[in-house]
Amino acid sequence: METLVEAEGGIDMTNQKKPIQAVVFDAYGTLFDVHSVMEACEEFYPGDEKMISQIWRQKQLEYSWLLSLMERYEPFESITRRGLIFALRSRNLPFDEPVLKRLMGEYRRLGVFPEAFAALERMKDRKLAILSNGNPEMLEPLLEYTGIEKKIPLLLSVEEKKIFKPHPTVYEMAPDFLGIPKEEILFVSANSWDVAGARSYGLRVAWINRARNQQEELDLLPEIEIQDLEELADYVANN
Length: 239
Fold this sequence. Notes:
globular
């Protein structure tokens, strides 16, 4: 069994590190660019698209955390809609149901990060899965539309547990469904809070830090910090 040792700045997972048998991906922000919605936002609200996208994403996450703390649950699609309404109202922008439907539809057509398909092809010798806050009704059309379903065969959704990440029971789904010890699973996320949650549970973690953001001050450091999925494929190939 892997031994965790305290090191300066956090927990060092390098002691007795085991081979990576499976790679489990967060979806939103990691494989799919949530800010690709800006193009559709610009159609209705030119000049406001960046702020709408940023507020929308922030409230979407905040509502998932709030609901979990209150021991309440509603599908991610529902709180995504709530986040959009908040963003539009916070900018004093008019909207109606057709506008909401059009913008919500973008979550079924999010852009895939350009290096994703080549990187996933390089990791096909490992078990691959997605572990997401998204509900299946929201994610499955996106996976089909983008073709990611052909590269990643297993979708794990918090819908199974009725609570959102970073609750530990969500990350527990990875070893439970894959049948692989958590010490041999590499969880991959572009979200620093998700990195902390997975690391706290005990998964190995790779942080895709595309924006070069500051690490969270929680002493829950990733095993590796990388800039994109190609760097991830390099790391997996050697581990």
